[in-house]
Each structure stands twice: as structure tokens, then as C-alpha cells.
Amino acid sequence: MKRLPFLLFVLSASASTVASGAEIPADQLQFFEARIRPVLAENCHRCHSESEGRSKGGLTLDTRQGWEKGGEHGPALKPGDPDGSLLIQAIRGTDPDFTMPPKDGKLSAVQIADLESWVKMGAPDPRTAPAAPTVAAGGPMTESMKAKAASHWAFQPLGKPE
To answer: Which residues span the domain enclosing 65?
Structure first.
């Protein structure tokens, strides 16, 4: 009986890992690496990359977290919905004020079709953002911080309720 809670924990943890998309099928991973990553690196990272130090419009496209968060206009992609994805709308070039890439011209029809297929299959993306640096403690407590902490109810001696 003691094993049941542990078993339930293990099952729920593994189910959440699968649901989060941690495992990308090999064919989708290969498609991303061969057809998508090169297009993004060649045409998008100059202006939308944390590693390049640029995020025009607040958008970075060099990590999954970057396109999920999106920029000033919201998330760049809607996995499974190419027509509702801002990135796909921009690369199609249907709106002259919102065409990407802006200077180098339009992507080829094959590149656009590949990006549409990628979004349609759920935008599998193995790239993750680098771990955020841990923030060190702000140093020793100041006197005002100590006084505030000392007056907190949790640090008062036990007594009879009034």
C-alpha cells in the first residue's frame, strides 16, 4: 500500500513529461535540423537572436521559449495552425508593412512550405534557452530588514491567544 503513492507520482511525472513535448519523434527532429534550423539561422537570427544580442520587436527565434513568448505582437507561432501564426503571415509577405525578412527579400516557396509544414506538425523544436543564471543573495540583511523580519508574526514567541 505504501508503494501506491510512489507509483502514482512516477506515472504522473512521466505523463507530464510526454505531454510537455520533451520527446520529439526522430523524423520531426530530423526535419527541424535539416530544413528549419538552417532557414531560421540564415534569415532570422541577424535580427531575432539572443546569441546575436538582437531582438527586434522583442522577438527571439533562436530558442523554443523565444517564439513561444513572442514579441510585441504576441507569440510568433501557434503550433498546429500555420494560418494563425504571425511568423508564417510575415514570411508569406501578404502585408507589405509586415514582411520578413525585411531587407533580403522573400524566402523561397520551398522554405515557406517547409516552415508551414513544421508549424502544422506542432512546431517541434529541441532548442531550449540557456539556464537563467542564479541570482545570489543580496548580501547581509540591513538593520531595517532585520527589524521588519523580527516583527513578523512567525518570529514572535508563543503565547495564549487574546
So the answer is: 23-120
